[in-house]
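Dear Dr. H.,

I hope your travels went smoothly. While you were away I took the liberty of generating a structure for the chain from your last submission, since the lab meeting agenda had it listed for discussion. I wanted you to have the full record in hand beforehand rather than looking at slides cold. The sequence, exactly as received, is reproduced here:
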Amino acid sequence: MTSDKVQLTKEGKEKIEKELRILLEEKRPKLVERLSLARAAGDLAENNDYARAKEELEFLDERISQLGEILARVKVIETEQKKTDFVCLGSTVEVKDKNGTTKFCIVGEWEADPLNKKISQSSPLGKSLLGRKVGDEVEVEAPAGKVIYKILAIE
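The corresponding predicted structure, in token form, is as follows:
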């Protein structure tokens, strides 16, 4: 991973910290115990549970490492103190297109969740909205064609 800062909201950071805590305190110890029991069962060459547990532990350790790296580089976005006259990371933006109005929260890449209207600042829509003001229109290339959004409000 690079040394670039990872921008997260306070909630996003807390979510990653919680996931890391669960992995370290609950899941990893259970998996290590399962691996130990499988190892004690005998012939490792033909022990499928041992092979699966070892593979799962490697995957889990990689995720733990990844989360630790993110937290070491995190920069928390102060959403309570940000200005609302233009769209920035942490803003909630109400936009209108031909289908109606929608609210999006602009977040860092690690906490993007399009199904819950949390879009990354590096997504096409996120890039288009950053730095814009209420009343501005942005055009975004979508799979179905170009979509024009008008910014109605910024929180």
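Two observations you may find useful: The chain has a mean pLDDT of 89. Residues 6-77 form a domain with the Helix Hairpins fold (CATH 1.10.287.180).

With kind regards,
E. W.
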